[in-house]
Design goal:
Layout lengths: L1 E6 L8 E6 L2 E5 L8 H9 L10 E3 L5 H4 L2 H6 L6 E4 H28 L10 H9 L1 E4 L5 E4 L2 E7 L7 E9 L2 E7 L22 E5 L10 H17 L3 E5 L5 H14 L8 E3 L2 H12 L9 H5 L9 E3 L3 H6 L7 E5 L9 H8 L6 E4 L8 H6 L4 E4 L2 E4 L3 E4 L9 H13 L7 E4 L3 H13 L5 E2 L6 E3 L1
Parallel strand pairs: 3-4, 4-5, 5-6, 10-11, 11-20, 12-15, 12-16, 13-14, 13-15, 16-19, 20-21
Antiparallel strand pairs: 1-2, 1-22, 2-3, 7-8, 8-9, 9-10, 17-18
Helix pairs in contact: 4-5, 4-8
The structure holds zinc ion (ZN) (2 copies).
């Protein structure tokens, strides 16, 4: 049996790995590549393999860099099952529809500018059909993917519904256990449970986004959030937060709620300016079964997201109306990497104003506008215009949805401690510098077989 690495190999986006065992082919994730437009476009349109060769797909979580190419596979004729957790399926229902909307809009825009009509990567109907093929499973329940191939979803603690996938694979009378980590979250993140490392593993595919650094503690992040809100409000400015619609947005709402209850921040309005984030918040509210019951607010409050200060804007007019308003406020808007979405017009109006703060809470990939903000460039490009970056930029790594290098290694150490026959550990979902540093760290911690596969490379186990 072997894994062939297709996406998120020596880079962060486009998660996709091909598992071949006993004549069967299973795809683990099939996400969108994001980054330089032309390059991503070409990669997204190249199928990882002909669809008729895929026997099943198992999905780790709903983020678009993991699930975003599934409707493309379906549009190309994939008609078999896509396995995921129940919450991932519900999140995909809104996220893939949103992604299809963006694909169609971008294609229409490009077609209107060029001479040729450009086909979207996929359409709304393909997203709907994808959801119809998704089977939502509970956590910690072993199910048969195909004869001789069983899977179990275990908590990854990254976003609602996120899972590490444990696969039990039979070939030539032997059974091996592979774990694909998906994206691993931090211990102590609000609302969702902590990651749970699986036992008795023979081979590992593990993410390495932050393989070269440590984050601040989660508790420190909440204090810093309070400080940023207080300071910005005192200047009469706005806190602009680019955030993925799913995950950080709900955690920020939760923590702002906690801070406001404790009187640690002034009572200024909090706008959730993203229809997708609003829909995702509803999906969160549908799945209290997977909340972290050890948290106080989770236990105390009936409806976690029903908070008087929070307003959900729906229409584009409402969103643009925020620009005409005065006084301090907090605006959380997509996209997370500032590549599209409503955050762009908030930056167009707000990035030049030194009273404002741009609060970065998530990972910003290379060649994205978000990365330029993190690097505190003098200008950023929004809708084709160079605008001055005068707003304060604050970076809160504590809210990262991704484990840092210490937490990643702790997860792996826990796996190793229960796995007498641990074989190859393949690093995915990380930029080369992060992967190289993490491989070195693991090697010095006694891991004998750490790989950093490039796209197309195979690892036998
Ligand atoms: Zn993710
Ligand atoms: Zn990811």
């Amino acid at each position: 049996m072997h894994i062939e690495f297709s996406g998120a190999a020596r880079e962060v986006t486009g998660s996709c790995h091909i598992l071949r065992v006993a004549g069967k082919t299973i795809l683990l994730d099939c996400g969108l590549f994001q980054g330089r437009r032309r390059e991503s476009e070409a990669k997204n349109r190249a199928l990882p393999l002909p669809v008729e060769q895929i026997d099943a797909i198992v999905l780790s979580h709903a983020h678009i860099d993991h699930a975003g190419r599934l409707p493309f596979l379906v549009a190309q004729g994939y008609d078999k099952t896509i396995w995921a957790t129940a919450a991932t399926r519900d999140l995909c229902a809104i996220m893939l529809a949103d992604s299809a909307f963006i694909q169609e809009k971008d294609a229409a825009f490009l077609s209107s500018r060029g001479r040729e009509a450009i086909e979207p990567l996929y359409r709304h109907d393909d997203a709907v059909q994808t959801i119809a093929q998704m089977c939502g499973m509970p956590y910690d329940h072993t199910f048969e993917v195909l004869p001789g191939i069983r899977a179990t979803f275990v908590e990854a603690g990254h976003i609602l519904g996120s899972a590490a996938v444990v696969l039990e694979l039979e070939e030539d009378g032997a059974t091996k256990r592979l774990v694909f980590s998906g994206d691993i979250g931090r211990t102590g993140l609000p609302i969702i449970r902590d990651p749970r490392p699986p036992a008795n593993i023979d081979a590992v595919i593990i993410e390495s986004t932050y393989g070269n650094r440590d984050h601040e503690p989660v508790e420190g992040a909440r204090e810093q959030l309070a400080r940023v809100v207080r300071e910005t409000a005192a200047r009469g400015g706005r806190v602009l937060i680019p955030a993925f619609a799913v995950g950080r947005t709900q955690e920020l709402i939760y923590d702002l709620h906690t801070l406001a209850r404790a009187g640690s921040i002034p009572k200024i309005p909090i706008y959730i300016d993203s229809p997708l984030a609003t829909a995702a918040t509803n999906v969160f509210a549908m799945h209290p079964d997977v909340y972290d019951r050890s948290e106080e607010l989770v236990r105390q409050v009936d409806d976690l997201f029903d908070i008087p200060l929070v307003r959900f804007t729906r229409t584009v007019e409402e969103s643009k109306g925020l620009n005409a308003m005065h006084g301090p406020m907090i605006i959380i808007a997509a996209s997370g990497m500032v590549e599209s979405g409503r955050i762009l017009h908030h930056l167009l109006h707000g990035a030049g104003d030194p009273r404002n703060t741009i609060l970065v809470v998530g990972f910003m990939a290379e060649h994205t506008t978000g990365r330029r903000i993190v690097e505190r460039r003098r200008t950023i490009k929004v809708f084709g215009d160079e605008i001055l970056l005068n707003a304060t930029v604050e970076i809160l790594n504590g809210y990262s949805a991704h484990a840092d290098r210490t937490e990643l290694q702790a997860w792996l150490d826990a796996v190793r401690s229960t796995s007498p026959h641990l074989g190859p550990v393949a690093l995915v979902h990380g930029e080369a510098s992060a992967q190289d540093a993490f491989r070195e760290r693991l090697t010095s911690a006694g891991y004998a077989d750490v790989r950093t596969p490039v796209a197309g490379e195979r690892v036998e186990f």
